[in-house]
From TrEMBL:
Record keyword Amino-acid biosynthesis present: no
Keyword ATP-binding: yes
Subunit structure: Homohexamer.
A Pfam family this chain is assigned to: CTP_transf_like
Reactions mediated catalytically: (R)-4'-phosphopantetheine + ATP + H(+) = 3'-dephospho-CoA + diphosphate
Domain Cytidyltransferase-like intervals: 12-140
Lineage of the organism: Bacteria, Bacillati, Bacillota, Bacilli, Bacillales
Taxonomic source organism: Fontibacillus solani
Gene name of this polypeptide: coaD
Localization in the cell: Cytoplasm
Stretches that traverse the bilayer: none
Gene Ontology, cellular component aspect: cytoplasm
Protein name, entry field: Phosphopantetheine adenylyltransferase
BP terms from Gene Ontology: coenzyme A biosynthetic process
């Protein structure tokens, strides 16, 4: 009896991760159990003005996922389906928080499948305790020095504090109370 070698099951979890939240981490941890390799791919979206650079986001993700041996951190600036071919991956992982998310993600999944019928998208429901959570909410809370310790990994909390300390130093002298 001859042993057959199967290719590793590779999935990609794409996103901006600006910054990575505990909601993202929930999806990463759960998806890493479903695939041999999970690539968390930071999108370099030139139309957005991110708080963290792509390299900073990659470093934060690498630190936050260091306990997950089958998780790789990468970045890309191409069509996702082209990146999937390059990485020899066939599954896109997407987290869903709400019906609104589902409608948007279904449109993306259908478009990706039209561009490359070998690519499938799986949706993972976010843990209900993170259903309200988004990177935008985290950034807004952190910008006003609010407590984000329950919302992001420790590394991200520290990085947010540093970002907003530096930003606030740059705008000293402005009186925002008027």
């Amino acid at each position: 009896m001859e042993l057959q070698h199967r290719s590793p099951r590779v999935a990609v979890y794409p996103g901006s991760f600006d910054p990575v939240t505990k909601g993202h981490m929930d999806i990463i941890q759960r998806a890493s159990k479903q695939f041999d390799i999970l690539i968390v791919a930071v999108l370099n979206n030139l139309s957005k003005n991110p708080l963290f650079s792509v390299e900073e986001r990659r470093e934060l993700l690498a630190s936050a996922t260091s306990h997950l041996p089958n998780v790789e951190i990468d970045s890309f600036r191409d069509l996702l389906v082209n990146y999937m071919v390059y990485k020899q991956a066939h599954v896109i992982v997407r987290g869903i928080r709400s019906v609104t998310d589902f409608e948007y993600e279904l449109q993306l999944a259908s478009t990706n499948h039209k561009l490359n019928s070998d690519v499938e998208t799986i949706f993972m429901m976010t843990n209900p305790k993170y259903s309200y959570l988004s990177s935008s909410v985290v950034k807004e809370i952190a910008s006003f020095h609010g407590d984000v310790s329950d919302l992001v990994p420790v590394e991200v909390e520290e990085a947010l504090k540093q970002k907003f300390i530096n930003k606030n130093k740059a705008i000293v002298g402005n009186d925002f109370s008027k």
